[in-house]
Amino acid sequence: MMTTGAPAAAPNAALGEPLLTFENVTLGYSKRTVLSGLDFVLRAGDYLGIVGPNGAGKTTLLHAILGSLKPRAGSITVHRKPLTFGYVPQAQTMDDHFPLTALDIVLMGRYRELGLLRRPGKADRERARHALEQVGVPDLAGRLFREFSGGQKQRTLMARALASDPDVLVLDEPTNDMDIAAEHATMELIDRLHAERGLLVLMVSHMLNVVANHVQQIAILGGSRFEMGPVDEVVRPETLEALYGMPLEVAQFGGRRVVL
Amino acid sequence: MKSRLSRLLLGLLLLSSLAAPPAAAQAPPPPPPPEAAAEPIPHGEDHGHVHGIHPEPGVTASPAGEGEAASLPAEAAGASPRQVFGLDFMQRALWAGLLVGGVCAYLGVYVVLRRIVFVGVALSEMSSAGVALSLLMNFSPMLGSVGLMLAGVGLFSVQWAPRKVRQDAFIGIGYVVASALAILLIAKSAQGEGHLLALLFGNILTVTTQDVLATALALGGVLLVHLLFAKELLFVSFDPDTAQAAGYHARFWEALLYVTIGLTIAFAIHAVGVLMTFAALVLPAVTSLLLTRRMPAALLGSVLAGLLPVPVGLYLSFVWDLPSAATIVGAGFALLLAGGLVSRLRAA
User: ipTM, 2 decimals?
Assistant: First the structure.
């Protein structure tokens, strides 16, 4: 059951303000239960990584957060209406055939606010260009998306999410298929956007070693289990062994947390 | 190419099952008797041969039978474009062709980019089955065509078994079942053979003024929807997941796209036949996408590449006595080859 909390008219949430509450939620498709017993609150300014092996239910949880999957049991309360999501899909899943420039794509982030029948104007184009500047690629505006590297595509999609002035920034596997330099630059950018804009940032990834060194909170999915909390509490050998079903160690190397 | 081949095979199979020998279908029909002026010439029996409809130069007649006088030039092979398009039936064919060519070409950019070419074929087959159903049940062919097309949109929108079988397999099932249904229904219809042949090969030359007006109204409506909701249709086509997350009802907009494509196919088939309709959905869009680098340019270029082959193909079919729809398709393909060559030269 999806319930609606008190609507708030203010466009931006105050830090710490609850945005979404999951209460004993069960998620699944048709007769199959994927995740159950989900109890947590997401607040403005949270920085959460959702991690787990392929097939653990990360995408299922993401769809429930985005509102496109209704819970089979329990309730999801949206505390702000409308809650604006800036969704950043996996760059490599995007269609490369459309002859669209970076600016065309970032402008899509403005469509919802424009509503039906209105076309983007000069102000929208300026917002889109500003979003491209925020992610460090203003020079890509007039270039074709299909000709970009993976990192450039990721930044363009992040700019589109930012152009919608979101309450929640949701990133799906933001560093997939990237080399180590692009991965580092992308994660630094996400850290900076979180710090500057005070957004609730949700990042889905199967790369525990990357995510655990950037987010403040982490949710780890494995089997039918779900653990969520501050990184230091969750990324521990005993928790990880139970989730992944294999012996794992957590070490510190050069100031970074490494799961071995 | 595959679907075109299957259509030709289907047509040949059907022809072989008819009482008349297949060669009869290639031969020009006799000149229409004077009383036939009030009745449309049977579709498809001459594959749209211009001279099949006007076998004798100088005959004053209108193939669509609207009683409008039009004279053929003494030497068709040497006729000027002005003379050719001065004929009433050629004018109607030109207008119908331009309408279908332009609007199908615009939608074709979405069809090609979204890789739903097969959906276009399947919907056109559903429309054909709808016409067959209407002939058997004795109601308006357009109602049958649009009705079954909408049923097809509904059926193709459902994810039947997403974890077991890919959706394109169900579209394929829709295609073959609709094709078989059309043949079965036609077999039970006393008057249907000519109509099915018209659907298979088309006959732009027998289009009536009413057909042109109905097509203009329907395709004008489709174009208006696309112009009004261009940004929503583009967003949902390019990235449905993000559009859904942004608050769009992605399935609604996808269904709207399919309905507009299906409606266009239904009306276009009625006016110009399956062959030209399907060609107009694919050839101009590919030509334009090879040559352009921006979405607005791709849409505009596709419309131009959809319009140009119509007068060229119609004129050539007249002066060379060729089937009109196939000649228009040939002109469109020649344009595609030229576009491909230019694209290669640019890249070199």
Answer: 0.86
